[in-house]
Structures are given as structure tokens and as C-alpha cells.
Specification:
2 domains, 9 helices, Rossmann fold, single chain, three-stranded parallel β-sheet, globular, alpha/beta
């Protein structure tokens, strides 16, 4: 069964209390993927009546000037669009965001939108993680790390693999649930029968594994719209 992220995202967003919300996004440089993600955030905000402001800076901006600009921003929530250029200290920039504006949960106990996506899919499709072998693919800041922390907090059985793992094929064939965010196209070519697959990738070769999966996110209309919906859900909860 397809996990319909677009339909579920619309359901989440239609139930938000959005009065007097403002999302500020900081974009440094001209990374094409970053620009695409920012445009999708803007579109969602405009659709649901949320004020959106983009703060765009050249990639050669220095650390001190960028920090001053960020400190002056007034908004309900602030997003630092990653990755930042190599000349910028990412940790220092992220740590400028206070907990009451940390819509992505990078530097506070606020929930990561990625964790929210997984929770919402599990709830909507009545999928349980109890007594399941869970595989997290990738250890990155955006997906793998927050998912691993969340699974650990739930006391769930999980394994995490990344680029240092020599061969993930055996782990994939043992996993009942796969949550992937490695960012490596077509990394996942085979899975266990009836596995649940949630791909933030694009890591999964959808055509090769879709018939084996019990539930799977599609390459379009899966985790993408859900990530933005959960970001805006977090924004509304910061306000309230």
C-alpha cells in the first residue's frame, strides 16, 4: 500500500491554527536542492495563510555578518536551510536559534519534523513498531540522528547503518521497517517481504521494491509534502 503523503499533509495542514504565524527561512548560497525546498515551504505557507519571509545571503558572507543578521530576525519560527557553505560554522549558526523558535528541533527538545512525519504515517495507517526489527539508513543530522534518538526514547529495537557499513543488503532483508535518509539514489534495491518503507532519500529504488513492501512512500507525494506539513505543524505549536 502506498503511504499517501500528499493527502495526509493536506489533512494535517487543514487542522492547524495558523493565525499570526510567521516562518523565516535563512538561505545561504545557491544550492539547487536548497532553493527547491525553500520554494516548497513558501508555497505551503502561502496556501495556508502563514506569513513567509526569506533571508537570502551570498555564499561568501562571513560568519560574523550572518550571525548578526540571524539575531535580528523576528518570526514565530526560524529555519536554517542546510547545508551551509564550508566557510560557515553550522553548529554556531544553529545554536543562535532559541528553543521557542526552533521549528526543526536541531538545538532543543522540540520535535523534529522528520520524527513527526514517521509518527503521523504510523498513526494514519495503523502501523505498529512493537516487536519489529527497525533499520535506520543514514546517520545524518536531518533524518538518521533524530529518528535514532526517537526510537531509543521509545525503547524500540533498531539498527542504524551508514556509508561506513560494508554491506547493508543483509540488514535490509532482515528489517520489518526501514526508515531511510542517506541521500544516495537507489541505494536500496531489495527488502524483506511485507516490510514497511519510509524513504526520505531518494534512497529506495521504488520500482524494484514496491511489490514486496506492505507499505511504502512513493518518490513523489510521499515524505516531501509531509515534511513541510510537519514543519508548519511545529510552527503552530511554537505559537501556542
Amino acid at each position: 500500500m502506498i503511504l499517501d503523503g500528499k493527502k495526509l499533509a493536506d489533512k494535517i495542514l487543514s487542522n492547524l491554527r495558523i493565525s499570526q504565524l510567521k516562518l523565516a527561512v535563512i538561505l545561504v548560497g545557491d544550492n539547487p536542492s536548497s532553493k527547491l525546498y525553500v520554494s516548497k515551504k513558501k508555497q505551503a505557507c502561502e496556501k495556508y495563510g502563514i506569513e513567509f519571509e526569506l533571508f537570502k545571503f551570498d555564499s561568501n558572507i562571513n560568519q560574523e555578518d550572518l550571525e548578526k543578521k540571524i539575531k535580528s530576525i523576528d518570526a514565530t519560527g526560524i529555519v536554517i536551510q542546510l547545508p551551509l557553505p564550508n566557510n560557515i560554522d553550522t553548529e554556531r549558526i544553529l545554536n543562535l536559534i532559541s528553543a521557542n523558535k526552533d521549528v526543526e528541533g536541531f538545538v532543543s527538545d522540540n520535535k523534529s519534523p522528520i520524527v513527526c512525519v514517521v509518527e503521523e504515517f504510523l498513526k494514519e495507517y495503523d502501523i505498529s513498531l512493537d516487536n519489529k526489527k527497525i533499520l535506520v539508513v543514514g546517520k545524518g543530522r536531518l533524518v538518521g540522528n533524530p529518528i535514532a534518538k526517537w526510537l531509543e526514547s521509545k525503547g524500540l529495537d533498531y539498527t542504524i547503518v551508514d556509508q561506513s557499513t560494508k554491506d547493508i543488503s543483509q540488514e535490509l532483508l532482515k528489517a520489518d521497517v526501514i526508515i531511510s535518509g542517506a541521500g544516495k539514489k537507489n541505494l536500496i534495491q531489495n527488502i524483506k517481504n511485507k516490510a514497511v518503507v519510509i524513504d526520505f532519500g531518494p534512497d529506495v529504488n521504488f520500482e524494484k521494491v514496491k511489490d514486496k513492501a506492505s507499505y511504502i512512500t512513493p518518490p513523489v507525494g510521499g515524505t516531501g509534502p509531509m515534511t513541510i506539513a510537519c514543519l508548519l505543524k511545529n510552527l503552530s505549536e511554537l505559537k501556542n
